[in-house]
Amino acid sequence: MNAFYTRSSAELLLNSLRSYPVVVLTGPRQAGKSTLLRQALPGWQMLSLEDIDLREFAQSDPRAFLQRYPAPLILDEAQRVPDLLSYIQTRVDASGRMGQYVLSGSQQFSLLAGVTQSLAGRASLIELHPLRLKERSDSGDMPTSLDRYLLQGGYPAVHARGLDTQRYYADYVASYVERDVRSLSAVQDLGTFQRFMRLCAARTAQLLNLSALANDCGISQPTANAWMNLLEASFIVKRIAPYHRNFGKRLVKTPKLYFLDTGLCAWLLGIASERDMQNHYARGALFETWAVTEALKWRAVRGNAQPLYFWRDNIGNEVDLLLEQDAGITLVEFKSGQTFQPGWLQSLNTVQRHMNQSTRNAVLYGGDLSAQRTDAQLVGWRDLVLTG
To answer: Which fold has domain 9-127?
Structure first.
């Protein structure tokens, strides 16, 4: 257990403040945004617009509010007063200085809509996710086992305070997800919404069929789509698009669904212990979910906004992750097994032939041995910390 984690995003935050007057930090509730800001910017004043008095002051007299609390200033839950962003724009344009404001929030669509409208070209956008494997390793808190790691997830409080995961995620859903749902949409039946979340958890790392999901939940497809957007807005899930360039109609167009934290997903699936995890039907899907979220975090700490893809054709050939990089395309398969199987390389080789170009191939698996094989780099899950 470690009470302090060095976050990889700290360097990106400081560099962004040297180049932009405003930095927007988004991410799920309890991912560590406030802690990161206090550690990286100890001399800055931080205000939360969750505070009713501060929020009313900012809404009723934004000019006086910004005069009373001058830059450098951190405004948490800034999406609660969207009109304030226009007044911040006026102040940063007048001064011309970099590094004046940090706006943070856990409802990405609400916050980013205001930024796009008022602060376009003036703000750098950063996403902070739950802990990466490297962040835990660098802080001397390397997970003892893969099953325990998948069960706990990455929320810092679970590890820093040694919290019971079952109680933590029950409280998380009740206190945070449901509060965001109420503030973002007029969802009346929270019991049905929680059932929707559990059905989504059962579909993590799978192609997303919204029609089937709606039928299983007993709601309309437009409602299912609206609720899926809510989960994305709260950083609970992410849809990953299929790669489709230059392949015509042979590739699927349906996205895959991923939870952004395996601990929350495991709780929704009713997985309560490492033994449960070892024998659960969704263990492989949770391993893939973790691996994809690690890729998302890896790009986020570099300020890389390029999307991730998967590759799947209409006869079932699939590779779990496709990365477009300056050096070319990298194909990655995820396998939760502990012992390498030669058959794991079949999909990589098949897709590489379909693409008709040279690719870098890798297999990330649940074992410990990493090695360079003829067709692909084999990477044990613990060695993912070496990716930086």
So the answer is: Rossmann fold (3.40.50)
